[in-house]
Specification:
about 240 residues, alpha/beta, 6-stranded mixed β-sheet, 4-stranded antiparallel β-sheet, 9 helices, binds adenosine-5'-diphosphate, binds magnesium ion
Length: about 240
């Protein structure tokens, strides 16, 4: 686990400024959300943190160490994508094992780690199934397991519940939070769902049009919104 500091980060695509001077400070073990409408730059910010995109300017610091020149595999911030991106031709076990194979972890250690994670996400009895033989919630647990088996310092979740129906969504929110607390892993979740952000997070960063409007506790966002835009999001009218 690790603290995360994002300092004056900017990113443009084709001369369009998608992220404007983003500054966020996340404590070790904290669960924060980036809340904002589609297109405001949330996924771009996660990809910059994970090292899947290069920053234009600004800095990203994990535990007091700048990581912008550290390759994504060495950074230890892992994204679980919204559509899971599981390998369809591999079993649950093989999907989870894959990242460890890439890292040249020995077979014995791989097997120990995969079994541990299968227990954690309660998928032991499904380990020989293929993704198409699993429910949406189970597929999501495989995606989580695949990230967690690599022992990330920071877990990045990109709209993790958007493909699940409403009942399953509540169950999975609790499930993800219980694992996050158990491992005490610093987590940044992207969502456009206000309830989700408010109920799951220690703090919420409200993002609009490439900017963080307010980064605060759920209580303060309700009681002391710092602008009309934020008040509109959390006020009675919405
Ligand atoms: P969000 O996740 O909040 O919906 P994104 O970070 O995916 O938003 O995208 C923010 C903006 O940046 C959008 O206008 C999107 O079209 C644009 N964008 C994202 N990735 C790229 C890219 N690789 N090339 C060009 N434009 C991009
Ligand atoms: Mg997105």
């Amino acid at each position: 686990m690790s603290s995360v500091k994002i300092i004056n980060l900017t990113k443009s695509f084709n001369n369009t400024n998608v992220l404007k001077n983003i500054t966020i400070d996340v404590e070790e073990g904290e669960f924060i959300s980036l809340l904002g409408p589609s297109g405001c730059g949330k996924s771009t910010l996660l990809k910059l943190i994970a090292g899947l995109l290069e920053v234009d300017s600004g800095d990203i610091v994990f535990n007091n160490e700048s990581v912008i020149n550290i390759l994504t595999e060495k950074r230890g911030a892992i994204i679980v994508f919204q559509d899971y991106l599981l390998f369809p031709h591999m079993t649950v076990y093989e999907n989870i094992e894959f990242g460890l194979k890439m890292k040249k972890v020995t077979k014995d250690i791989r097997s120990k780690k995969v079994e541990e994670i299968l227990n954690l996400v309660k998928l032991k009895e499904h380990k020989n199934r293929y993704p198409s033989q699993l429910s949406g919630g189970q597929q999501q647990r495989v995606a989580m397991a695949r990230a967690l088996v690599l022992n990330p310092r920071i877990l990045l979740l990109d709209e993790p519940f958007s493909n699940l129906d409403i009942n399953l969504r509540n169950e999975m929110r609790e499930f993800v939070l219980s694992i996050q607390k158990r491992l005490n892993i610093t987590t940044i979740m992207v969502t456009h769902n206000k309830e989700e952000a408010l109920t799951m997070s220690n703090r919420v960063a409200v993002m609009l049009d490439g900017e963080i409007k307010q980064f605060d506790t759920p209580k303060n966002l309700y009681e002391n919104p710092n602008s009309i835009e934020v008040a509109n999001i959390f006020g009675e009218r919405n």
